[in-house]
Model the fold of this input.
Amino acid sequence: MDQIRIKAEPRTEQGTGAVRRLRRAGMIPGSVMKMKKGGTELIKLPAHDFMMAMRGRASKQLLVTLDMDGTEVPALMREMQNDVLAGTPIHVDFSEVSLTEKVRVTVPVYLVGEPVGVKIGGGVLEQVLRTLDIDCLPTDIVEKFDVDVSGLGLDQTLFIRDLNLGDKYTVVTRGELALAVVKAPDDVPAANAAAAGEAAKTPEVIKKGKEEEAADAKKEEKK
Done:
């Protein structure tokens, strides 16, 4: 992953009114959980610079370098809150990390390749899980994992335990959980349902025919 640098400043602004004024001034309020000193430090980030740094990022848990008045602080972006309507960030939480100690992060998973069961068997690929929980060094954090499912056959399932992400990553997500499955096309139940529908119509037609015959018979009697 390319290095992400974000300029940050300590802030004293607190409270709803003060934070709103801060945002109107083009800044995003945030916080950094300190690893060595303990506690939490309040910070503010230039909104434009932050959004440019985050553009095109697939993951929201990223290793960043916070430039705090010339001091570089390695930190993990833990949570970003967005405005519901505008979709722009309104608050960001970081936690200071050691580059030599493993951290736990959640990484998105993308399926690549067309499964054999879809290409030849006419099945449907379904992605069951879209993220993985892993332990790794901060410098080994990736934005996403691309998982090849081209070898997946009809009615076959790819489980978490089947993944091979390399020695850098320890998968925390339970191995028995399914990541992706190729399901067989549901043609037979659909055909049965159609046949049942036609069968249901037949008695109605017969019944209608008998009623018409009875009515015609009554007309003949009156004559």
User: Anything to note?
Assistant: Residues 5-97 form a domain with the Ribosomal Protein L25; Chain P fold (CATH 2.40.240.10).
